[in-house]
Amino acid sequence: MTFRQKNLLGIEPLHPEEIRTILDLSDRYVDLNRGASKHSDVLSGLTQINMFFENSTRTQASFELAGKRLGADVMNMAMQASSIKKGETLIDTALTLNAMHPDLLVVRHPQSGAVNLLAEKVNCAVLNAGDGRHEHPTQALLDALTIRRTKGRLHRLTVAICGDIAHSRVARSNILLLGKMENRVRVIGPPTLMPAGIADFGVEVFDDMAEGLREADVVMMLRLQRERMDGGFIPSPREYYHRFGLDAQKLAHARDDAIVMHPGPMNRGVEIDGTIADDINRSVIQEQVEMGVAVRMAAMDLLARNLRAVPEGVMV
């Protein structure tokens, strides 16, 4: 299996064969998680620390469950009430962590680049669980796994990513991954929610849902990230839903077998109609949650192999 990374900080450093390695191993963990016995010992003896400087339900629970199913000793650090609030710097936190000798460190942070800084200062494998507007690699990987299992492939698909592109690390990671795997990527949203230079990422840009969704194989809706907005990016939630919320009329422009995705949490009636979100024939939103545990198990397994393993430069 080809995976040379010491950390999982983003999609950008990954080669296509490394993405395939993660997804292939994730498939095996999907089978494990669906079986009667859901446990493995591949992380036995290793310590996993989850540090979430931002609130999270799905991602933190998924990483915790993934570590426990692989046999790791898992500790969650409540960073909202931590020494950071008392003025400790991120580098001092890293030095403190080093003294605890963790093996795997899972970090979510509101500032872009903070996870990369920590990775430079600690002596363990670091997994980025989302940093600012930068990246959310395991979300893109679980989305890729969901697409591959549902559509039967992860190449030559037309994928439409819709909504708040400007504030979305999920969008950035998905654009990078889908591009590496030779897909046609479109982004759809109001100009106020498009980042400057988005066309440089090799995507097609639309501000009309009917045009952007035409013949799409995958429709990926994004959450409106109001906590990251400091101005009037949209007229109102009602107007936003009218123009950019996914409903049956807009979805009709996509292919008949197009799947609908959302990273969660969903704002029903703002980004997506509840009927579409719950449509078992089109929506794969619950499958995304299931794939998240498997992908995080695979990522930690591969990083642990490289940790335990092998002299530097040797392929796992």
Q: How does the SSE layout of this entry go?
A:
Blueprint: H1 16-34, E1 47-52, H2 58-69, E2 73-77, H3 90-100, E3 104-109, H4 114-121, E4 125-131, H5 137-151, E5 158-162, H6 169-180, E6 184-188, E7 204-206, H7 209-213, E8 218-221, H8 237-244, H9 248-251, E9 259-261, H10 274-277, H11 285-308
Parallel strand pairs: 1-2, 1-3, 3-4, 5-6, 5-8, 6-7, 8-9
Helix pairs in contact: 1-5, 1-11, 2-11, 3-4, 5-6, 5-11
Would you kindly provide a written description of the structure presented here, covering whatever features stand out?
It is a single chain. This protein is of the alpha/beta class. The protein has eleven helices and nine strands. The chain has helices at 16-34, 58-69, 90-100, 114-121, 137-151, 169-180, 209-213, 237-244, 248-251, 274-277, 285-308; strands spanning 47-52, 73-77, 104-109, 125-131, 158-162, 184-188, 204-206, 218-221, 259-261. The chain has a five-stranded parallel beta sheet. Strands 2-1-3-4 form a four-stranded parallel beta sheet, with helices on both faces. It starts with 15 loop residues before the first helix and ends in an 8-residue tail after the last helix.
Summarize the structure.
Helix content is 39%, strand content 14%. The strands form 2 sheets. A 5-stranded parallel beta sheet has the order 7-6-5-8-9. It has a 4-stranded parallel beta sheet with strand order 2-1-3-4, with helices on both faces. 45% of the residues are buried.
